[in-house]
Amino acid sequence: MATKDPLSVGPHLPTSYEAADASALQALQDGSANEDQQKRALRWIIERAAGTYEAHFYPDERFTTFALGRAYVGQQVVKMLRLNVSTLRSMEDGKR
After folding, report:
1. pLDDT by residue (tens digit) across 44-68?
2. 55's torsion region: left (phi>0), alpha (psi -120 to 50) or beta?
3. Rounded to an integer, what distance in angstroms lies between the CA atom of residue 72 and that of residue 50?
4. Which residues lie below 8 Å from residue 86, measured CB to CB, with a gap of 6+?
5. Cβ-count burial of 11 within 10 angstroms (0-12 exposed, 13-18 middle, 19+ buried)?
């Protein structure tokens, strides 16, 4: 059963999830995730767990700081997904 979205209350609360989210993450971990599970797992990490695309301001400064920390993780995952790997490899080869 899905839990209520906690972001309206505060970013420090556990993230909502469904059984399919947990199943997708577990399949990703053990290397058996199909295409849909892989996409669902990444979407849950980026959008739900990290709150990457949410508003990060809260009236409480500690909540804001916590939300920004969560979002930073999601931003790093998104960055890695969008990197041009061939360019990165050629840059790494040039360092050797």
Report:
1. 999 999 999 999 999 999 999 999 9
2. beta
3. 8
4. none
5. buried
In DSSP notation, 10-76 reads -TTSPPP--HHHHHHHHHHHHT---HHHHHHHHHIIIIIIS-TTS----SSHHHHHHHHHHHHHHHH
| Predicted structure pTM score | 0.83
pLDDT recorded at residue 46: 98
For residues 54 and 67, is the Cβ–Cβ distance under 8 A? yes
Q: How far apart are the first and last CA of the chain?
A: 52
Categorize the per-residue pLDDT at 25 as very low, low, confident or very high, splitting at 50, 70 and 90: very high
